Prior knowledge:
The complex is a heterodimer. Chain A is α+β, with helices and mostly antiparallel strands. Chain A has one domain: Cytochrome-c3 Hydrogenase, chain B, CATH 1.10.645.10. Chain A contains 17 helices and 8 strands. In chain A, a hairpin with a 7-residue loop joins strand 7 (332-340) and strand 8 (348-352). By secondary structure, chain B is an alpha/beta fold. Chain B is built from 3 helices and 7 strands, in the order αββαββββαβ. A 5-stranded mixed β-sheet of chain B has the order 1-2-5-4-3. A two-stranded parallel ribbon of chain B has the order 6-7. In chain B, strand 6, helix 3 (108-119) and strand 7 (122-124) form a beta-alpha-beta unit. Chain B starts with a helix and ends in a 38-residue tail after the last strand. Chain A binds chain B through residues 40-41, 44, 46, 48-50, 52-53, 84-85, 87, 209, 211-214, 216, 225, 227, 232-233, 321-324, 326, 333, 335, 337, 339, 347-348, 350, 352, 356-357, 359-360, 389-390, and chain B through 25-26, 28, 30, 52-56, 58, 60-61, 73, 75, 79, 82-84, 86, 105-107, 109-111, 114, 118, 132-135, 142-143, 147, 149.
Amino acid sequence: MANTEIMTVNMGPQHPSTHGVLQLVVELDGETIVKVDPVIGYLHRGVEKLSEYRTYHQTLPLTDRMDYLAPMSNNLGYILTVEKLLGIEVPERARVIRVIMAEMARLQSHLVWLATHALDIGAMTVFIYAFREREVVMETYELISGARMTSNFFRAGGLSQDVPPEFEKKVRGFVASLPGYIDTYEGLLTNNPIWRKRIVGNGVISAEDATDIGITGPALRGSGVDFDLRRDIPYSGYERYTFAVPTGKNCDSFDRYQVRLIEMRESCKIIEQALNELQPGPVLADAPQVCYPPKESVYNSIEGLIHHFKIASEGYPVPEGEVFLSIENPKGELGYYIVSDGGHKPYRMRVRPPSFVNLQAIEKMSKGAMISDLVAVIGTLDVVLGEIDR
Amino acid sequence: MADTNRAVEKLQGTFAASLVEVKEDRGDWIVTVAKEAIIPVLAFLKNECAFTMLTDVTAVDYLGKPGDRFVMVYQLTSVLHKDRIRIKAPVSEADCRIESATQVFASANWLEREVYDLFGISFDKHPDLRRILMTPDWVGYPLRKDYPLQGPDREPYKGRLS
């Protein structure tokens, strides 16, 4: 006689395809999923609480440790919010470099997504290829900031330093070659019958449900909602670049896969346009109460040293007020809500992480599917636990 | 931005008695409402003003400042009009509860669980009110201003050099 009772299975927190420390308590009827209950918080570091005890400048390094697959993009959201509170203007060159690096972060994040998503489903070759290309982005990070992941490169008012001369050549070479590599990935995957069997019709979520659950980013556009903050509520000068916003029709994992691949091609176009308008000039605003002085002045003059010491030890006061600003992170809408009471530290900093909200959809997307499809659903949502748990 | 203005005007017309404050700060529209009116206001914005996405729910602890201790903050986005509005609702420490927005927006589920977990604000009619980031047996609410950074019963960190 068949045993028909519901079985509860623990998946994670140490599971290779949960992309971090995510635990899923899955209720199964045979192999069919009845209920999924994600258990999160294993990586909770209290970024929001910590920021209340740090100056605005000291909070910056906390932000690139959240979505560690796109650190520069995280920095950008935070810095733009602080700049909006301060009301300072950023020099043209700094703004263009920020856009280039935010798009490089998007490419990096999407490459890791493609690599791990394919690996989870059993296509190992793509993993090796995509990580090769990602390495170039990491090298670019290292070239300009000295660190491969914890970049901490932007500053309120601009950049920590100008990029070295070889930066432009390296980025141009990368965006010129990447579309060819994407063709390779598509050649390996798009018409591959195993790949299609695993993700066509997997994790379907309608446009209405996706909006209601608050899904953002490529996962929302895969469900056919034409909404991209870079185009619709532009920031950091995105309104000057032309790029297409791809959307899906069938709301499944395959559409989200295609949306992300097209997004990578569009990112290359944005970077090219930005490189073309990159002009020499200052990279830090003329705002001495906020910006660090140039290193020559710190090393060679007592005024410069005092200036540096004052900002490093005390920080800078930020006018009273509250600002919510969100940017189109590779994984969705990353929002920062900062309340300032006029002091040197944020009174309250709230991070609206895209992965946290997107992960809510996992129950709806995997109900009634087989347990092996759950791995594909996690992959297609493209979550990163460092950001969910903060 | 023009459309948010219209939404604000509509709110002023319909909920005149419940609105506490309407202001603009650096281009953001902020509407403070009485907490009893939060669900009708959110439903009105969703159904009549096309704010179909609840982007964020959070709270701020104003311990020691005049007025109610907590303020709930809701960020709404209109996908149609590419616009945003922020709704705030004060919550007092004595009656630390508010009605759950899950009746209107599904996205409020985890976001409200997080506020419950870290601020201790309770949500009426929430379908699944459990802690989310902290462990289920955790005592205290870490994002409250009177909760020490190092956690309870621990010597405060005095810095590396002191």
